[in-house]
Design goal:
Radius of gyration: 29 Å
Largest sheet: 14 strands, mixed
Bound molecules: 3-hydroxyproline
Number of helices: 15
Distance between the termini: 72 Å
Structural class: alpha+beta
């Protein structure tokens, strides 16, 4: 096979090496790849088994390692590099088919293909895993002395990390100045190629090249050895650090706490919810309020700026993806029990929300033997039985509570009350006094009107908030339904949800959809098996990237109510590490106004 027809890439598509120095070689069959034969002996048994499963003898050649020329890698192989690839600064492998020399000095770029389970199985790999993840996250790869101590933290290892950093750096030089064998920044000539990998250059031109070659900000910066950059310091886990993953569902944010939250007491979720409320509320405030959060922040599960909810549909959708994608058993001990159903392409999860059990289905794809969520498809969940407790109820608004849009002669508002894991009052724009629809209404005026309506219902119609569990007998939110906007697709509704202390849900409100579908069934507008699409102002605005609303389907009628399936899409927005420095008087955040 001609060398030019052979590729040598990681499973993520990154080029690992080159035949004849600059001809890409592609390797598809899955294999473990170890840089040094003697490393095998030092590995734990499980690792040897890996080698037996994928017997690849691989060697490296550089100034310090024994040369060896065969890999057993065949064209069509897929490579999973061991973390110890970090210790390879220059390597020559031999492709079995055409015996072309394969250069893999750039193997560090394969780190994003490392499977976390591999790393997990071999705890000793942790430091390199860390590097891999930092690299993947676009963070600076630490210099000597900045990585956490670990079994691999030897002088050799430190050197290898330093070398790795150089390797990535020079990868770009190599790509740009193929075969030039000199640094274009400072002009240093190189006789041997591996010398290039030892080269560090501070010149602005090289940094500019690096910026140009990477589509993201520089993966590392030039910080003197043994100095920990503040960015890296802030990411280090300490006993007080709270680490989170942020997502959004149709624009509604969810902050998932990954570490740093103390264990909650209580045997049921409602008891744990009380424990969180009474003992750790300062943590919620810290993460939700400014300056670490914002007025509309939601924290999974089921707590938000004002307090703690009993059901949160948009967070359930986000959490479904996250639980499939996390491999941290401290975060999700049952992760390894998850099963990707090859026929349906779904992974099913059961989540306990304060209102009851929620069954979540996450579209998943298999990649390198593990499942990950498919961002291009909707997550769905089956909620707790939902039901209406009042339909077309006329509620008299006392004079002192009336809002300007309510006509003087019209002191009554027609309202529906329904439960979808929490209680919702559902009212039309017209009934509330906004006959031109939600899109032209003032949010401030809607806020005043819904707040007044909510307080009247909460004070005078408590009997409508019927639920066996006392903790759930409260009016969570008011949803105003638009009667003006028309849609190309039938059975589509636009609504706006004011919940908790009048926060506006950016999403179409998953639990609100449960309540609205159950209400439509109770009113005879929807039958079992039928569905509607629900939009918020944000999800309607596809141009803004929100894309889709939530689909609500009446799935089954039970004695307790209708089981509703809600479907929607969630996306990751980032990850963060929150700290509080000594002397920071705003440790637990603040609310303006
Ligand atoms: O989607 C939901 O159900 C949640 N979104 C914010 C308010 C609700 O709890």
């Amino acid at each position: 096979m001609a060398a030019s027809a052979v590729d040598f890439r990681a499973s993520n598509g990154l080029v690992l090496g080159f035949a004849n120095d600059n001809v890409p070689v592609h390797v598809k069959r899955r294999a473990m790849y170890f840089p040094r034969v003697e490393d095998f002996a030092a590995r734990p048994c499980s690792q040897k088994e890996d080698i037996e499963l994928a017997p690849i003898s691989s060697c490296c050649r550089n100034s310090s390692y024994t040369p060896c020329s065969r890999t057993g890698i065949r064209p069509g192989d897929e490579i999973v590099l061991s973390s110890d690839a970090a210790s390879v600064s220059s390597m020559t492998c031999c492709n079995e088919a055409d015996r072309e020399s394969v250069r893999a000095a750039e193997c560090l770029v394969a780190f994003p293909s490392l499977e976390k389970e591999n790393v997990r199985t071999h705890a000793a790999w942790t430091p390199a895993q860390d590097i891999a993840h930092r690299y993947r996250a676009g963070l600076r790869i630490p210099l000597d002395g900045t990585e956490e101590p670990g079994p691999h933290r030897t002088r050799k290892h430190s050197r290898s990390i330093r070398d790795s950093r150089t390797l990535v750096y020079n990868q770009h030089i190599h790509n740009v100045y193929d075969k030039s064998w000199k640094c274009d920044g400072c002009g240093t000539p190189f006789i041997k190629r591996y010398e290039l990998t030892q080269h560090l250059c501070d010149c602005p031109k090289m940094l500019a090249i690096q910026d140009e070659m990477t589509s993201r900000p520089r993966a590392f910066s030039r910080v003197p050895a043994a100095v920990m950059d503040v960015f890296h310091t802030l990411l280090q886990p300490t006993t007080h650090t709270i680490r989170v993953v942020d997502m959004h569902t149709s624009g509604e944010p969810t902050r998932i706490v990954v570490s740093g939250y103390p264990p909650l007491s209580g045997s049921t979720l409602l008891e744990k919810r009380r424990s969180a409320q009474s003992t750790h509320d300062h943590i919620r405030q810290r993460l939700m309020r400014e300056p670490r959060g914002h007025a509309e922040m939601r924290i999974s599960r089921c707590c938000f700026n004002e307090g703690y909810s009993t059901m949160c549909g948009h967070a359930t959708i986000a959490l479904g993806r996250f639980l499939v994608d996390t491999h941290d058993l401290d975060v999700f001990p049952n992760r390894e029990k998850l099963h990707h159903d090859a026929e349906t392409g779904l992974t099913t999860l059961r989540l306990h929300a304060p209102c009851g059990l929620i069954r979540v289905q996450v579209p998943t794809i298999l990649s390198d033997g593990t499942s990950k969520s498919d961002a291009s498809k909707s997550v769905s969940f089956l909620g707790v039985p939902s039901y209406s407790t009042a339909r077309g109820l006329k509620i008299a608004i006392p004079e002192e509570k009336r809002w300007p849009q309510l006509k003087d002669d019209d002191s009554e508002v027609v309202v529906d009350i329904a439960f979808g894991g929490a209680f919702y009052a559902i009212v039309s724009d017209t009934a509330l006094g906004f006959p031109t629809g939600l899109r032209s209404a003032s949010l401030v005026e809607l806020d005043t009107a819904t707040l007044a309506l909510k307080s009247v219902i909460a004070e005078s119609h408590k009997e409508l908030l019927k639920h066996p569990d006392e903790d759930l007998r409260f009016l969570y939110s008011v949803i105003v339904v638009d009667t003006v906007t028309t849609f190309a697709e039938p059975d589509t509704e636009l609504g706006i949800c004011f919940f908790a202390d009048q926060q506006i849900d950016r999403s179409p409100t998953g639990s609100g959809v449960m309540a609205r579908v159950a209400l439509a069934v109770d009113k005879g507008e929807l039958r079992i098996g039928e569905s509607r699409v629900y939009h918020s102002l944000v999800s309607l605005d596809a141009d803004a990237g929100a894309g889709v609303g939530f689909r609500g389907t009446a799935v089954e009628m039970t004695e307790e109510g209708t089981i509703v399936r809600v479907e929607g899409r969630a996306f990751y927005t980032g990850a963060a590490s929150f700290v509080v420095e000594d002397g920071d008087g705003l440790a637990d955040g603040f609310v303006v106004g």
